[in-house]
Write a structure and sequence with these properties.
Layout: H1 18-64, H2 81-99, E1 113-123, E2 140-149, E3 166-171
Antiparallel strand pairs: 1-2, 2-3
Length: 227
């Protein structure tokens, strides 16, 4: 498979089977054709059928699920869970190495940024005591940046794939140790993806015009409000 220079566009299917490649490529072509007509019938279709189809699909899925007696938010480790995780990591790594050249690797998912908005996260005063941990320990308001993103790992035109699958929140003014040592003096949440600039996590929005190929992946550049 030819490797992309910048991660944009959708590469052809590469399943190892000519028949499966044809089915995948043809199906994708038909989906892209449908998207050109979707705005003309989607509102009426959703109004009539969306809730019904959602309930039927969810019901069928639940009928096939086995009740294992899980409590709310309970998690149990599977005996082969580590093997499954290793397989996911290896599969995604192989895909990225096959698709992109060194220096142009894209994220494995939620690659495309649809928008970044400002907001506030309010920690309420009436939180139960057992929930007052971390950023929820004290009532206060955090300035925040919110990123709407998806799909991935390919960066496609909106007309081909416009749906978003991820909403990430970056809190500002969070005290305490940071994930990255080089940002030890920075009071922000470093884990949320929103804006990525190679080796320049200190940039502001007002400086982005001078940076070639700025990509919105990690929120290091949003240390202050844009001017």
């Amino acid at each position: 498979m030819p490797k992309s220079d910048d991660g944009h566009g959708l590469p052809p299917a590469d399943t190892g089977s000519a028949l499966l490649n044809w089915i995948a490529n043809t199906s994708m072509f038909l989906v892209h054709v449908e998207r050109r007509f979707d705005p003309f019938f989607r509102p009426a279709f959703d109004a009539l059928f969306r809730d019904i189809l959602t309930n039927v699909t969810t019901g069928l899925i639940n009928m096939m699920r086995k009740d294992e007696g899980f409590k709310l938010a309970e998690e149990r480790f599977r005996p082969d869970e580590e093997a499954h995780l290793d397989d996911i990591i290896a599969t995604m790594g192989n895909q990225m190495r096959r698709l992109w050249k060194p220096g142009d690797f894209q994220r494995g998912g939620n690659t495309k940024t649809h928008g970044i908005v400002r907001g506030e996260v309010v920690i309420r005063e009436d939180l139960p005591e057992h929930m007052r941990r971390g950023i929820f320990a004290q009532p206060r308001t955090y300035p925040a940046w919110v990123r709407f993103s998806g799909p991935g790992p390919y960066i496609t035109p909106d007309i081909d794939d416009v749906g978003f699958m991820s909403i990430s929140i970056k809190l500002m003014g969070v005290p305490g140790p940071k994930l990255l040592v080089r940002n030890a003096g920075y009071e922000g949440q470093r884990a949320t993806p929103a804006l990525e600039l190679p080796e320049r996590s200190d940039l502001l929005f007002s400086e982005l015009r001078a940076v070639p190929c700025a990509r919105f992946h990690h929120a290091g550049a949003l240390d202050k409000d844009p001017e």
